[in-house]
């Protein structure tokens, strides 16, 4: 989750700042994720985790009945993905506002 992803690197960011007096370079997608993650409070994270668990329980009860469930999921066409270029679909909308 966004909160966990951001705070998992607290010690790294603090040590890097202490050693270099500047923030570390991170890729634009990571920077965007960290900027969003630091806005989430611990209570909001815990509430979201509870909701995910409710959904997970419902999903497993509903769809994992039987010995060999089969899922068909749409997958996009594969192609090159360059590190600093977000996909076109993300350029048109701010995905972090949707969460």
General description of the model:
This protein has 99 residues and is mainly alpha-helical. Helix content is 54%, strand content 0%. The protein has five helices and no strands. The longest helix has 22 residues, at 42-63. The protein starts with a helix and ends in an 8-residue tail after the last helix.
Q: What features would you highlight for this structure?
A:
99 residues
Q: Please write the string of helix (H) and strand (E) elements.
A: HHHHH
Helix content: 40-55%
Distance between the termini: 11 Å
Classify the secondary structure makeup into a structural class. Answer: mainly alpha
Q: Using only CA atoms, what is the Rg? A: 18 Å
In short:
By secondary structure, the protein is mainly alpha-helical.
Ordered list of secondary-structure elements with their pairings:
Blueprint: H1 2-7, H2 10-20, H3 28-37, H4 42-63, H5 88-91
């Amino acid at each position: 989750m966004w909160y966990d992803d951001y705070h998992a690197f607290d010690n790294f960011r603090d040590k890097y700042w202490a050693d270099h007096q500047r923030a570390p370079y991170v890729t634009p997608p990571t920077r965007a994720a960290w900027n969003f993650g630091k806005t989430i409070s611990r209570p909001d994270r815990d509430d979201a985790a509870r909701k995910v668990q409710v959904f997970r329980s419902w999903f497993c009860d509903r769809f994992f009945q039987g010995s060999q469930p089969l899922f068909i999921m749409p997958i996009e066409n594969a192609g090159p993905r360059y590190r600093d270029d977000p996909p076109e679909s993300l350029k048109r909308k701010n995905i972090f506002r949707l969460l």
